[in-house]
Amino acid sequence: xxxxxxxxxxxxxxxxxxxxxxxxxxxxxxxxxxxxxxxxxxxxxxxxxxxxxxxxxxxxxxxxxxxxxxxxxxxxxxxxxxxxxxxxxxxxxxxxxxxxxxxxxxxxxxxxxxxxxxxxxxxxxxxxxxxxxxxxxxxxxxxxxxxxxxxxxxxxxxxxxxxxxxxxxxxxxxxxxxxxxxxxxxxxxxxxxxxxxxxxxxxxxxxxxxxxxxxxxxxxxxxxxxxxxxxxxxxxxxxxxxxxxxxxxxxxxxxxxxxxxxxxxxxxxxxxxxxxxxxxxxxxxxxxxxxxxxxxxxxxxxxxxxxxxxxxxxxxxxxxxxxxxxxxxxxxxxxxxxxxxxxxxxxxxxxxxxxxxxxxxxxxxxxxxxxxxxxxxxxxxxxxxxxxxxxxxxxxxxxxxxxxxxxxxxxxxxxxxxxxxxxxxxxxxxxxxxxxxxxx
Amino acid sequence: xxxxxxxxxxxxxxxxxxxxxxxxxxxxxxxxxxxxxxxxxxxxxxxxxxxxxxxxxxxxxxxxxxxxxxxxxxxxxxxxxxxxxxxxxxxxxx
Amino acid sequence: xxxxxxxxxxxxxxxxxxxxxxxxxxxxxxxxxxxxxxxxxxxxxxxxxxxxxxxxxxxxxxxxxxxxxxxxxxxxxxxxxxxxxxxxxxxxxxxxxxxxxxxxxxxxxxxxxxxxxxxxxxxxxxxxxxxxxxxxxxxxxxxxxxxxxxxxxxxxxxxxxxxxxxxxxxxxxxxxxxxxxxxxxxxxxxxxxxxxxxxxxxxxxxxxxxxxxxxxxxxxxxxxxxxxxxxxxxxxxxxxxxxxxxxxxxxxxxxxxxxxxxxxxxxxxxxxxxxxxxxxxxxxxxxxxxxxxxxxxxxxxxxxxxxxxxxxxxxxxxxxxxxxxxxxxxxxxxxxxxxxxxxxxxxxxxxxxxxxxxxxxxxxxxxxxxxxxxxxxxxxxxxxxxxxxxxxxxxxxxxxxxxxxxxxxxxxxxxxxxxxxxxxxxxxxxxxxxxxxxxxxxxxxxxxxxxxxxxxxxxxxxxxxxxxx
Lengths: 440, 94, 469
Hints:
heterotrimer; B: about 90 residues; mainly alpha; C: about 475 residues; alpha/beta; Amidase signature (AS) enzymes; eleven-stranded mixed beta sheet; 14 helices
């Protein structure tokens, strides 16, 4: 029997706003002393009330727009009721039937579109730490993270392999990074994902069960976990068994998923409209203003780089993996134009030399390219002769180099260059010198 | 019987004794019977009113303000450990 | 005249004229509390030392020329308002040891206005009830007859103000919790428009309904207190940004041309004595120049059902935070009434029942709102009894899962619609228990309510009667 994996994905993205979603405690909680970023609101104290964060709402809408969603002109917050010690109020403020965004998609390289069911806004919970204290197992709670804004992005069950999931996640990560609304760093928990996986013999038919996998904190593991789960379910099905509807955890050390909770009954979250927050509405004008604030995203950039700068799609893809790198490239192209350097040369230089754009300015990059292109090749015999002279004059440095002192190499290159009365290609000199040294 | 008292108590995270369950079952039934009167009102096509204020789009600027100190945050807790709230061990599941 | 029996208006006048100091007034109140509270159980926390310090400070400020609106006025606050550093329990043992690290906006505004807080008033636990009998600290007693209930949930505040333990008080109403105990104790209780007064820091009961407000000896006093409380609060997203008028300014306006609506349904099943006192009060209004118009309103009995569903549902969620981890004790300490409400609300929100109960209630709420809107096209205010009866004997609420709803049947429709209402004393029963008249107005009509209530108060002397204690 041939089984097709049917995979859906829920991704939580933590926004990097200055303050929390419903109070003005600092949202910058990572690595801070426990319970120093809390107030009556995010501690769920009696009588405290939520006031939504305007920027977080705007960012959520920008994410939704970037994913091609329709924005609900009438939206609201709802309470999702459930008990857990890290959930201060005994309910999470989320969105139920009127999320900010619906019906979006992300297109994969293969041309397949992964449909996005909804994009909604909610708040994070506190953090639980499990520890043994005085021989007794205990759970400790830090509420610094409680109330930090989260955007949840839910897909339809459109994936049929772990590779597709990984590609989708990379694209999604890039979108939120381009928007500069989240660091989307999986290790820090800025981006959390929960795939749900099942297998079917008929890809058009959803199976009767679904397995959710939690605690996955890297792209590498998401692939492993999904593939493990596909294999596990396939084995069960082959033996004529039906996998259980359940939530499983991912054990990164053992590389396996394990049963966490079997659902006896569907969760009953008793959603109802949050009475403490008036509804949120958007006019067409507001939506188009937000749309105009969405920057050019990677896909459009790749196309434009091809069109405007005649870059190969491969190069354009590399240069747009990071919004600041793409900006650096474009700046350099502008500067380069005045110096007769074309975009292709700049792209090659950035890609081949792995230029660190955080320490270099576009102007200095262009200058380097100019120098590199202006240097002349020297006559090989003349070069060999000068190398021999320099090596004889600097036996100490030669000895040092052979003993592993790398710096001596550049010293020798410098000595050689000085013997020319014109600019020479430093790489040519270096290559010839190395050849000589290793040859000896 | 329409109310599964044990199930509702579980959802509500309320520890109830068997005696309480029995008592509440009867009382909740009475209350439910009373509120059944609403069925007499035809609400076809009537919109819901979640909030009576007519307000919308109330939100705050994203400016962080000072929090409570950890001492203040923990002051009312029954059990703490090194600046954290402490509870009996729970399985990490949600 | 004893100092403690002064109203806020009278006290302020004497304080301004330097005929009285806040320390004298506060001391008089504290002595009165010492004398009467054991029997009445109106206050569950008395902050006597802090009160005297605050009074001294108030006198100092006044000596320096400071003229804050309530400077030096001793007041009591219902125990569901968070008071920084002062135990706040909502009369539930779940919060027996809870010391808030912050003030409710109402508390903050009162303190900024210069009040002297005497203590925290008893109430039905979590404001669940209309008797104070669900309080984990025992019921309060009605100062007019200690064998009777003061009403609730703000029964402690009502009893305290009626017994002259304080010059004024603060209550909160979800549906009836200010007006009904004010009626039973013979004082003025003003329930503002939903959103007019911030809910921040008020231990939530029914979040879409809760309205804090003044409970005072006179109508003028309620205007002074509302002036301090009303207005937009950045910490409460549902607070109204509308401009706050001067509530005292137009209280003397003549009533000629004012149209009062009366609905027969609001007199059905009401005690005869109450009907006749309220009817007489309405006659008095005619004498004062108002015209009376019969109107038809949505039957109050449906409001009971709507209110029960909405309030229980919100309660089930609002009480979810009490898990004993960050403050207070565990959920096993909830009393019967809270447990019942949590259970019913959990049920009405649960899968498969939401549409039949919660959604249906929200739809009927729309009908009730529209009904009032229609009514207020024809009349300025609606009048009727506040409560179907005068105060009931102690023990009446026991084992009546819907006691509160029944006692509050006449105030529930307006609460569901978020409308303001005021109770004023309008007579006494044969056994000397107070009777209250309620006046309901459209949204944000507090100024008009105060005007209309004040004219009656000026023409009558019911508000000057005191219980003998």
